[in-house]
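Example is below:
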Amino acid sequence: MDLLKPRTVPLSEETILWFEFLLKPSLLTKHLGKTNPDPSPTDLITQFLSKAPEGQSQTTELAPPDTDGSHKAEGLKYNKKQLALKVLALKVAAYMRWDLDKLERSVSVPLQIQLLADLCSITAGKMVLLPSSLLQDPTLVGTDGSKHSFNFALTLYHRWVLRAQVLRAAVIKNFKSNSNHGPTVTDLTTFVLRDESSIAALEPITQHSIDYLNQVLLDPQAFRVLTYDSFVPLDSNNDNTQQRFDSAIAIKPCELRAQIHFDLCQYYLYVQKYELARHNVLLCKENYAQWQMEEIGRTGLPPAYCTVNADVLQGYLLACGVTGQPNGLLQRLHESILNHYSDIVIILKEDNVRKEIPMTQRKLLELNIEGYNAIGSTDGNPIEQKELELAVVALNIIRYAMDGDNILSCNVALQKYKNQQRKLIESLFQYANEQYEQFSIEERELLKKYFYRIITLYDGELLGPALDAFVQTYSKVVSWQELKDFRAQRTQVETQLSGIALQSDWVIPETKNPRLEVGQLERQLISCTSANAVRKLLVKIAGTNPSKPLFTINPSWTIPYPLEQILIPLQRGFLQDFACILIGKAKELTARKDYATAITLLTVLKNETQRPELVGNPLVAKLGKMVSWEGLLVQIQQVLDEWPRKPVDQVQLVRNCKQCLNSAIGTAASNDLMPHAKVLEHCAALLLNLNEWSALLIAPDKRFPGVELCSAITQAFLDIEKFKGTKKTNREAWEMLLPMFLNPSGSRQRQLPPDSPLVLLIGKLREPLVISILLSLLARLHNILRDEPNAEINAEYMFLWPSNVNNASIYNIKLVTEALNLVLNQALRYYPNNIPWLKLKGDVEFVANNFEAAMRYYVTALISGTEYCTVHLQRPLFDDFLIRRMVKCSTNLGCFVQAAVLCQFFDETDYGLAFKSISEKSASYSDAMDSYYSCIWDSTLLEYIVNWHHKKGEHKRRLQAVAFIGQLELNANNNEEIKREAAAVRKNRFLRSLAKQYMC
């Protein structure tokens, strides 16, 4: 009912007629002061302005100035009724604190324009027609106007220009999205759609509005806001009442800036200028916080101008990517690695409390720092780098201990850093003590148990006094009293042992029995590792006139056959025994990975063969050469075992390997002394791994198939570089490997011999490119022999090799698969995150119908490629071929909804396969159907799921699916960027769930 319209029927006493507000303005103040005034303030504005429809034209521009540059003092061209109603409307708007949110929500667009035009005209003291594209001009203000009030009016108008366009876009979008759900449309939608032409006329002046608002932000003059008392209603005695513009109040600059930056942020988000939006929302946040601190709560009055809501501001901050939260620990870890491990200790200490970083990442960090220090980097102080390494190890041990598992890794670390054991244990006590109070009760107990284990292992040794000092200094984990109680409770040895039983080395009693004396010397000879000690013991034992050669004392001392062929003809005596024993001990130490001692023994033996009295002996000269090659073999084995750590003197080692290979080539025709096959194959393998390609371009020698194979692979690589993949490469490697996979006569079941050239070479491969070339050859041969399109496997560089073989039936595909697995296992041991190899391993498992293992490798490849889900999953990390195989694996494992979700990953969603997967009846529903709804971004698929649950009568699951389909980011009218972001977030979420299922 229009309560302001006079009627002929009797009205209640509380009803106020519209003209009564004119006759008695105090009634307006009383009415607005009610708790819930009816009509509301916005209804009053609508009624007042509708009684004066002779408003200004919405398309007329400001009148041009006269030739002298000034405007005529035209005054306000309103009649008395119009002016009175307009002043009342402005008083109501001032009472609402010029809240554009409320005006836009309840007042139509033409009346909003009329209200703003009236405000500009009354504050200017003469007619100002809108829309205005002018900035503030002093000549526009008449004698009855006010400069600061006109500035306020123009600021409000230009704010409205930006907001109206944003509101129109939002309402049109809402109207389209609701058109399919029923005819109900809000009043706001009706207003905006009806007046869309009025708002479209604002677009040409938008940039002028932005410029004006930016100028207001820079204006040093105080910004004054018109209040309720600034407007004086007309009375019956005066045609034109002077307004009290001097009653306007000055507001804080931070309040004004907060409001204007908020409006600018809204507009820039609307036009997709996200950097500008982010800049303005940050300034809004800063000024809003300052304004709250300075003003709100101090006066007890509501804000005079700013209507920014804290929750809405937080939403805009999130929309602009300003979360206010620090980066996650995993992200900070990656940034720290890029910044040369800055703040790494702080990050790991935080993670020991929050447990966000996977232990695999922390272990990789530890190994990276170890390798960084091992290569002798000159970027920093070596002492500080070693301390950093020990700190990371100590913090990882604490995390291991609190996780309650993998304690073996802790003990291995203590043994690994045996030379820095005291420093490492002190770091353990220090870091555990610093964070002890931050850990939970269960974690504290686990820590105590681990530290008691350390005390048990090292108490009583040289570290005993140090442990006492650590406990006294860092007493939170293990107090001094707890240490004493623990020692007192330890089980005492009940059996009293005699003195001789407690001796570490039995002392031979004083006796003249020569057999006992010789036995003691032989035992010392077997256990000692010093060449000088061996020399002295040999002299002593030789004095007893032994009946057999001394190198036969220990049957474990083995000598390579080529060396044995030289040592046996030597005259029996010191040199023969000394050489055999040192070579045997070197082999034994090499097997125990004590490479330094083994090389030392062989170096002493080499020097022994160069003594002056032995120079003329040809056998001794040959022995010297063979021993030097044996020492080179030990060095190569050390490099391969410690890969990827580079050798100390790589240049000299490469030179020695080249000389060794050249000596074999030079003596092949003369049948002179040459290195044995194992040394040559190791030299060739090392040069292959160190990319010394030119040294391997040698004439192949059929006596050394391992060297020949290395040479063939080298030629294939050089052809890749030469022809850039435009033609087939040298097929020498292909022709060498084919005979290794022939079926033996009378049997189709066998394994690759462990001493075959291929198996031996696989164990020595380290260089990724070499491994990739060999994998491509084996993968191509596998596909040819299998000859099934659905069972093909993919690898890099497969285009290099032939596409067929003659008489494929004579080859054993099981041997090819075995070789593939050998190479892949070796490769992934050193490069566990190599994505092409992980995919290839998944393909090998897939064609073998090991679907769970295949999924594990496929998921590992995707996890590695997304840096453990810290970046979005994108092509070419995955393709339709990979996704189709993952769908097949999920289907065979009974995880049908997993398969349906994966159907979204295709270039074009495979709805037929997805719908079929959802409709499959699984006896166990092992894939937890409804838990994957949050991973679906295709609305068609969600709609099918809703329909399917409806048919099945599963009401609860249907409601869950409906809730997900209604999410804002899945709206079909969103722009492409929002759609891509929604899909990327759900892809990573799904990938994490697969990782938990198949990798953990």
